Amino acid sequence: MLAQSAPTVIWYQPLQSVRSAALQRRQEELRAAGFDVATYTEPRSFYPAATKAFLSAHAQGPVLFMISGLESESLAAISRVRMHSGYLPIMIELPEFNEELALHALYSGADDYCVNETSTALWVAKIECLLRRVRLPQDQTEKYPVPAPTSTHPITESKTAQWSLIDDGWTLVCPEGLKLVLTTTERQFLSTLCSQPDRRASHDQLLQSISEKNSPESDAVSGHNRLGVVISRLKRKATSEGLTLPIRSIYKWGYMFGAPIQVL
């Protein structure tokens, strides 16, 4: 029975006050189906709760993150939760179906989506399907990369937990302090990407930043191929130095840097 496993849904609902009645009804229906639903509307309460879930994942029952809407705060939450947890499932809740927005959420790190107009039975089936991945015996869950406790929450925005571009953009520093010296092209790419609102830039913006002024790309295909090569090489270079870059593709549009970063 579902109620016996007591799975937890940590539901983040930023900027959803106009939909509060509909969301409240859905929460009650999920509770009636056997879920423990904890809701948050502010980042200052959601991110500490998410951190607690990461740190105790090996000791508690199944956990799933539900994030409502596709505002910038919702997408940022998806990216930040995914960056710190590669195994706890994330589901996006949409007021109505929109293929482009659903793809955007999935490429930002969500595992699946639910549409508010669909039945609670379908929601329960989707959540249960995702939770099967983390219902493992105690000895197996120990293999998950659960982060060690620290004095600060790993996903709260603080100067010590952010990436940084320093030395006029020539050096990338990860939250753990590891440094990556950049080439001219890498510097131009990251400086452009990380200086945009929400750290998102279109293919055209990024191509323009890495192209020589007098050498425009002959066609869109070759330009996108070059951009892909630059990003692939940068990720491999970072991996060889012990860094995992949170650069993510945004379907048919561009790229995003999926973590807080300071450009100094």
TrEMBL record:
The keyword DNA-binding applies. Keywords: DNA-binding. The keyword Metal-binding does not apply. GO terms for molecular function: DNA binding. GO terms for biological process: phosphorelay signal transduction system; regulation of DNA-templated transcription. Residues 177-257 form the OmpR/PhoB-type domain. Signal peptide: none annotated. This is OmpR/PhoB-type domain-containing protein. It comes from Paenalcaligenes hominis.
